[in-house]
Design brief:
Layout lengths: L16 H12 L4 H6 L8 H7 L1 H24 L3 H11 L34
Helix pairs in contact: 1-4, 4-5
Length: 126
């Protein structure tokens, strides 16, 4: 008589439409993947399982949120919001508020150069 082997481990995970919608919403609001995974099912799922089964929802949620925030930031910058203008020029255009000071001398060494200063005073008498 042959006996059937019982499966070992958990049954395969099958996502529901409700879970897909929930993952999409949380990804859109910037919830970390580990936290999203903890809300799926009764005991949560592993982050790798989340990425395997909800890849599209995670990518689409983040992309749509980034686009919406980017649009709002862009409009604020166009309307003159100084902090939005500064952020945009630094993050998107590579501008920086740093000053670079070149300390090399004209001969490209770090050797200090002697600078002569001549003060000419006019004679009071003429």
């Amino acid at each position: 008589m042959t006996t059937k082997k019982r499966p070992v481990g958990r049954p395969a995970f099958v996502p529901t439409d409700e879970q897909r919608a929930s993952v999409y919403d949380m990804a859109k609001y910037g919830v970390p993947h580990e936290h999203i995974a903890s809300t799926i099912g009764d005991n949560g799922i592993d982050s790798d399982t989340l990425k395997k089964h909800f890849r599209e929802e995670l990518l689409r949620g983040k992309a749509e949120a980034s686009a919406a925030i980017g649009h709002t930031l862009f409009e604020k910058a166009r309307n003159g919001c100084t902090s939005s203008l500064i952020w945009w020029t630094r993050s998107q255009m590579g501008w920086t508020g740093e000053q670079k000071i070149d300390l090399t001398s004209s001969d490209k060494s770090m050797t200090p150069q002697i600078i002569e200063r001549v003060i000419v005073r006019e004679d009071k008498d003429g």
